[in-house]
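Morning run. Coffee first, then this:
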Amino acid sequence: MSDELKIEWEGLKEFSDLLKKTNRQITKIVMEEYTDLGVLAEEGTKALAPHDEGNLEDSINFDSAKKLGGNIIVQGGSNLEYALRRHEETYRMGVHDKYADGRKTPDYYVSGRGRETHRKPPWRGYKPGRKYLDNAIKGIEKDYDSTNIRILEKILGTE
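And here it is:
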């Protein structure tokens, strides 16, 4: 007789394989749902971006969800130099002319927004203009909450 106690767990490999499969399924659900949320964030950001020539709106892009370490992220924004400036600068109040391509357009800017930006409709209660990315994210807060609830329902099989 020995002083050793030996315990063998049967089915442990199968259980481990099941956990791996379940984790892949959960990751797939989360990635799909967050990618869809990123599409909505892109839509809102474009809708709220200031509009002059349309370059800023055209440059806005959100990637599909990606797994980065233990996190799942959706990245988005613009690669234009002036995108951050348009987002962060304070409004220049009053009425101002626009100078572009050697031409002057009188009274183009009113209260910090150009004519074309003024023509854009609000998106989810937010006016197009400065802080367009922040406002788009604020505009989808309820969607973020409902996305997380939908993810849980899918995982638990109650959807």
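Residues 13 and 125 are 53 Å apart (CA to CA). Good start to the day.
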